[in-house]
Every structure is written in structure tokens, then in C-alpha cells.
Design goal:
Elements (H helix, E strand, L loop, with lengths): L1 H7 L1 H12 L5 H8 L3 H13 L13
Length: about 60
């Protein structure tokens, strides 16, 4: 996890900790807990997904 903190920063590291504690957490709740805008959280998660640090498991909202 230290590699993530060094490469992506403390905010992304905090996001990963929150997701680890609650895999079903929403971006709006992450934003509220961490004190950042939801769009900022979404951008960080998108980058983590692109770099395969995290991946979605299960169905999407659409199906």
C-alpha cells in the first residue's frame, strides 16, 4: 500500500482504505468522509481503475 501512497498521493491512499473497510461505499459517501468533492473522488477512482490498482467486481448499476 505504501507504493500507492507514493505514486498516487494520500487522497487516493485514503480512498483505498475506505474501500477496503467498506467495499460497497459510494463516491458520495467517500467525498463526505474525506472532505473532497465527489467529482474529485471519481477522478481518483478512475485513475486507480485505469492503472489496475482497483477493479469493479459484480454487476454495474445498469445491469
Amino acid at each position: 500500500m505504501e507504493e500507492v501512497w507514493k505514486k498516487y498521493g494520500i487522497r487516493s491512499f485514503d480512498i483505498l482504505i475506505q474501500i477496503h473497510q467498506n467495499p460497497r461505499i459510494t463516491t458520495s459517501l467517500l467525498a463526505q468522509k474525506l472532505g473532497f468533492a465527489q467529482v474529485t473522488i471519481e477522478k481518483d477512482i478512475k485513475k486507480l481503475k485505469e492503472d489496475i490498482v482497483i477493479k469493479r467486481v459484480g454487476l454495474t448499476k445498469a445491469g
